[in-house]
Design goal:
3% strand
Length: 158
């Protein structure tokens, strides 16, 4: 410190010109380019607008074709799955269990999804077992007593 000036004093002696508004300013930091945050922000916006849209890095969704099952390689089970319009509750449970097992065994399934899939598989398997033991659902999907009946509309009822 024999020169007599501190680093802060040498910065304050330097006067710079703002590249955005051309106004003279004294920088508070040695790497300060703009006179104010507003000029810095405006310069950033101008740089962004001046680059053509094609050169900007934007994420675009890739169109991935859906894989279709080859009809020649359909199993009887897969065929019945496609043709049967209204599966029973037991069939839906079996389908769910089968798909969950495939998802767990798949190499494409991430490790973070395995606990949730395992819980769902255990739940669906238990429900299927209960359904098969009782020869009916553990909880009925449609209760015939509580089924809604058609009643003619009358404006006086409102």
């Amino acid at each position: 410190m024999s020169s007599g000036k501190t680093s802060h004093e040498s910065l304050s002696a330097e006067i710079r010109k703002c590249p955005q508004c051309s106004k003279a300013f004294i920088p508070s930091r040695k790497d300060q380019k703009y006179c104010s945050p507003a000029c810095r922000k405006q310069a950033s916006r101008n740089r962004t607008r001046s680059t053509p849209a094609s050169s900007r890095t934007t994420k675009q969704a890739k169109a991935t074709p859906r894989r279709r099952k080859n009809p020649e390689h359909l199993s009887q089970e897969d065929f019945e799955e496609m043709v049967d319009p209204l599966p029973t509750y037991e069939d839906m449970l079996r389908l769910t269990v089968r798909r969950l097992k495939k998802a767990i065994e798949s190499d494409k399934t991430s490790s973070r999804d395995l606990p949730a899939l395992s819980r769902q598989l255990l739940s669906a398997s238990k429900e299927l077992e209960d359904y098969q033991e009782d020869d009916g659902p553990a909880f009925p999907l449609i209760n015939e007593e509580s089924e809604a009946q058609d009643v003619p509309f009358s404006a006086e009822a409102i």
